[in-house]
Amino acid sequence: MSNILEARGIYKAYKFSKSVFTRKIKQNVLENFSFELFDGEILGIVGKSGAGKSTLVKCLTGIEEPDAGEIFIDSTKVFEKKLGNKTKINLFSTLEIKKKIQIIMQDPYTTLSPKRRVSSLALEALKLYEPNLSSDYIRKIVESYFFMCGLGKEYMDAYPHELSGGQSQRVCIASALVLSPKILICDEITSALDLSVQAKILNLMMDLREKLGLTYIFISHNLELIDCFCDRKLELV
Questions:
Q1: What is the chain's Cα-based Rg?
Q2: pLDDT (tens digit, 9 = 90+) per residue, 80-92?
Q3: CA–CA distance from 88 to each of 68, 80, 83, 85, 223 (Å)?
Q4: Residue 203: CB partners within 8 Å, gap ≥ 6?
Q5: Per-residue buried b or exposed e for 111-148, using 16+ beta carbons within 10 Å of the residue's own CB
Q6: pTM of the model
Q7: β pairing state of 232-236 and 68-73
Q8: 3-state class of 135 per DSSP?
Q9: Which tens digits make up the pLDDT trace of 97-133?
């Protein structure tokens, strides 16, 4: 089985001070962290609060830059930096790499603007990445992903406050899928939902994996859920 993502020797530290009168202290969050993600699998990453799960997600998607290490996505080296060296490779800003890896966040209401229709996120993303497509065609594509995620086209023009938590999370899943990514990072995507809704979202993710050939990184603090849902797990301590 070939890998679709690989991280080698990732370091990430933050500096903080306990008060304005004390010197900043450097704290390593990720230290020489390496792992592989295989094509088509669901990899669970579990750990307590502060173990570095969110930091890892940010490093893998280019939201934050590791202090050192290498990251490969689909056999392309997208990041490389050595400790103490300013020279680096960073391709996370390129459209090609952004399309390959997308993230779904824990709270859909932090992703969706309360003043905009819920389809606007997907419509604008697709227009940015596929500028040659007509607006009507882009809307049809987004409608198809909404439908795939269990939402009729009437939801396209809804506002976030008109949707339930489960419906809002389905919107975020559809919005992540419109760019046809190969990898989806699911960052605690069920933790804010009721148990019955959690099960429906997990079943949806399994269906989408089969239909679209997706590969998942599933972040959670819930070890039982990771054991049930994922093919393999890594634990951050």
A1: 19
A2: 999 988 899 999 9
A3: 9, 5, 10, 8, 36
A4: none
A5: bbeeeebbbbbbbebbeeebeeeeeeebbebbbebbeb
A6: 0.91
A7: unpaired
A8: helix
A9: 999 999 998 888 888 999 999 999 999 999 999 999 9
